[in-house]
Amino acid sequence: MKRNLLIALTAVLSILTFAGNAQSVKKTKILFVLTSHDKLGNTGKPTGFWIEEFATPYYYFNDKGYEVIVATPNGGQAPIDPKSNEPSFQTEATKRYFKDAATQKVLATTKKLSVIKHTDYAAVFYPGGHGPMWDLANDKNSIKIIQQFYASKKPVAFVCHGPAALVNVKDKAGNYLVNGKKITSFCNTEEDAVQLSKIVPFPLESKLKERGAVYVKGADWSSFAIEDGNLITGQNPQSSELVAEILLGQIKKN
Predict the structure, then answer these.
(1) pLDDT (tens digit, 9 = 90+) per residue, 169-206?
(2) 124-134 pLDDT per residue, tens
(3) Which terminus of the chain has fewer Cβ atoms in its 10 Å neighbourhood, N or C?
């Protein structure tokens, strides 16, 4: 009987140890912030976020064992810019997304920015698309999240029109966060090329310069990204994977 009792106790201890280890290997969380805005100014056309700028970094991190949580100003379905669904813009990541019901559900059930706690995440990443120019540029919860991550010295990353979320963010001293920092984004000549310069609420490159950013860029439609401290920015959709790579490097250092 003593032997049976010893075996039983050993089994219980093993289960408790396994459970403890399972809890200790929780996945590192990365916050992705997407737009909720789906109208392209007064054109009557839809907009949203650019699917490639979400899909490529999402799978980049997900495949490496990180947990990506997606939030939007309104919560719920994040609007995909239909333009980004066109065949000429498809990549392996976007093709994977459209066959991936689980990730589609992630975008259908995004969390509200207002409930996000920055302490739960190792980093934050803002994909682009034209939507952020209208909502994330002015969203108080988004501004607060960026301030919190930046002040906590956690990586804060943006790509393409994602840096629109930076234009009204200020530091503790009341200065624009981008002031004096090397920043890139979708540039004015790229905006001209897609014929939306007169539609967007402001030219992103010009607005960042107005806020004091040291604006830098690569050739139009080339992969280009830059980091200045824990602030990481990429120029266009072609830069999304490069931004993810730089972001991962910073996460590993923290």
Answers:
(1) 999 999 999 999 999 999 999 999 999 999 999 999 99
(2) 999 999 999 99
(3) N
Domains of the chain (ranges; CATH) run 27-253 (3.40.50.880)
**Separation of alpha carbons 127 and 176, rounded Å:** 21
Instruction: Find out whether 112 and 73 touch, Cβ atoms under 8 Å.
Output: yes
103, 131 contact by CB (below 8 A)? no
So what's the pLDDT on residue 10?
52
Structure tokens at 108: 């259908």
What is each CA distance from 153 to 68, 121, 124, in whole angstroms?
19, 12, 11
Q: Do the beta carbons of residue 209 and residue 215 sit within 8 Å?
A: yes
Give the residue among 202, 199, 203, 198 at the shortest CA–CA distance from 44.
199
